[in-house]
Write a structure and sequence with these properties.
Number of domains: 1
CATH topology: Cytochrome Bc1 Complex, Chain D, domain 2
CATH superfamily: Cytochrome c-like domain
CATH class: Mainly Alpha
Bound molecules: heme C
Shape: globular
Number of helices: 5
Distance between the termini: 51 Å
Strand order of the largest sheet: 1-2
């Protein structure tokens, strides 16, 4: 077999796994689908749903804001004139909310006893998956 043919076959194989060329707005690559699934697992492992509602995760927590549509809301939060955090994107805002929730208290929660604990123990890889999954939550 020629080298070119080998390379072509290898590409075809990798694409059949990751779905190259099919990843449009509504279809996820296999790698993204794995990341999404892992994100949901981390959400469960860390018990985020004790305080948050996320229909997809089957949770109904009421101590914190809803996570249904959080990707859309995160976008709005960073444009709030009272926002003092460092995030420039919705994904960064979600990441910051997990690692350093005190950077910005969601309006309505500033003066309550319900504060979010900082999750500093989640690995970067797991946090990436969690942020990926939540960022895709759109209204
Ligand atoms: C003990 C309850 C509690 C737990 C557990 C908890 N949170 Fe929160 N979370 C809150 C509260 C209360 C707020 C709102 C106050 C604030 O901004 O800190 C919040 C805010 C947030 C926000 C910002 C929401 C918005 O509308 O802007 C995100 C994102 C978030 N949490 C993600 C998570 C994730 C992911 C986990 C799991 C790793 C988690 N939370 C676990 C209580 C909790």
């Amino acid at each position: 077999m020629t080298r070119v043919r080998q390379a072509l076959l290898a590409t075809t194989f990798v694409c059949s796994l990751s779905g190259c060329g099919r990843a449009g707005a509504d279809s996820m690559s296999a790698a993204e689908a794995r990341m999404e699934a892992r994100g949901l697992e981390v959400y469960e492992e860390q018990h985020c749903g004790t305080c948050h509602t996320l229909k997809r995760a089957g949770t109904a927590g009421v101590f914190g804001p809803d996570h249904d549509g959080i990707g859309t809301r995160a976008e709005a939060r960073i444009h709030d004139p009272n926002y003092r955090g460092k995030a420039k994107t919705a994904a960064d805002y979600i990441r910051e909310s997990v690692r350093d929730p005190a950077a910005y208290r969601v309006p309505g929660y500033e003066h309550t006893h319900f504060t979010m604990p900082a999750f500093t123990n989640i690995s970067d890889e797991d946090l990436n998956a969690l942020v990926f999954m939540l960022s895709r939550e759109r209204d």
